[in-house]
Amino acid sequence: MKNLTNLILSSLLCLSVGNGWAQDYQYSLEECIKIAYEKNLTIQRSQLDLRVSEVTKNQSKLERLPDFNMGANYGINWGRTIDPTTNNFVTEQLNSSNINGRSNLTVFNGMQIHNSIKQANINYAASQAELEKAKNDVGLNVATLYLNVIFNQELLANAQYQLNSTNQQLDRTKKLVDAGALPVTNLLDLQAQSASNEVNVINSENSYNLAVLNLKQALLIPAGDRFEIEIPELVLKPDETALMTPGEIYKTAEATMPEIRSAQLRIEEADLNYKISKGAYSPTFTVSAGFNTNYSSFADREREIYDGTVPATVPIGYVPSSGETVVSDVSLPNVVDTQSSFPLGEQFQENISKNIAFNLSIPVFNKLRTRAEVQRSMLSKYRAEVSSQEVRNQLRQNIETSYNDMIAAAKTHTANQRQVEALEEAFRVTENQFNLGAVNFVDYQVATNNLYMARSDLVRAKFDFIFKQKVLDFYLGKPITF
């Protein structure tokens, strides 16, 4: 087996150089997963969903604040029109302008704002869990493809070892045939066996190339780019996972897997949506305030400036019989100055008006729309609960299947090890007997092919066992490493 390991390493080095893949740097599994995290479109989509939910979360908190809007207009009128500053009719060109502003604050609306904030926070947390799940899925997929490359490398090395062994036997037989010690049919049989082994090498090389291509595609690396992975030392050892039951593994996974957390958060989100819908039954109390001011070109002319009032006597009539004037004491505006114009700024300042209002809206009948929305939100909550249970069931089934596969893979690997050890000894004996002429080529070929198939099965069982172990480690929350 030591010679086989050395041959594997040398064959892979030659293969990499021959195909133009050799480079100074080799990518580890952790680096491949990091590249996938950066480039994978599913992860990028989940990251964008997370950013959207973050925006929604931040905006929902601002719903507690009042809003404020302003407006302005400017108009020109000809002919008979109303002066907006005096409400009198004028018959000349009139330029007018208006500025207004309004603010509204929702004081109570059935706790809808409060529940919306909580819902947005939960939605953000669920999006975080879904992003984590997307990364887990991508990481597990990359690990599978990475392991598949190593697996096909070992199969290729096994095929190359078998070809080299046959070629060595072919060279020895050729010398014996040339010396007349063996019939030429032995040489022809070995040439046919060598060609068959070469086909196995070609098929294994093609499988290896496809495995590398699949890994490149998962990392979004162009097929023509040079790429080589780091080959870790894979040592099989007893796994503590085998000492656990599927139920124990599930309990750990249930507490750590992001899909479980996300499903539970979606239930809470649906429950808050139900409360928000019910909040529409409650009255809504709001406070609003505003201001308004205007300008008129008709008022922009000479005017008198007043400061308080002064007493005055003014005639109000006369006595018909005597013609005596009747007067009355009144208060008249005290004119202290005159102004040649009434400009825009001063008009806006003097014409401003302010208001505040308290509004109460009580829902009485809206064609049962609120009732229907409450029913839909309740059904959505039930659906979220079903989805959550479905996720839990799927996780449990995956763990149970992976556990059984791991146990079976361990037993298969142990049996394949014994098979290879026995067939290696059988091949050694058959090869010695074939060299001495004690057995024919058919027996030698059968022994060779049996050993090749057994070694291939051992490699397959080894990587199957390793992968099943890593899957269970993943469910236990352990990092994906080799």
UniProtKB/TrEMBL annotation:
GO molecular function, one term: efflux transmembrane transporter activity
Keywords: Cell outer membrane, Coiled coil, Membrane, Signal, Transmembrane, Transmembrane beta strand, Transport
Subcellular location as annotated: Cell outer membrane
Main subcellular localisation: membrane
Signal peptide interval: 1-22
InterPro entries registered for this protein in UniProt: OMP_efflux, TolC-like
Pfam families: OEP
Domain of life: Bacteria
Record-stated family: Belongs to the outer membrane factor (OMF) (TC 1.B.17) family.
Protein name: Outer membrane protein
Species annotation: Reichenbachiella faecimaris
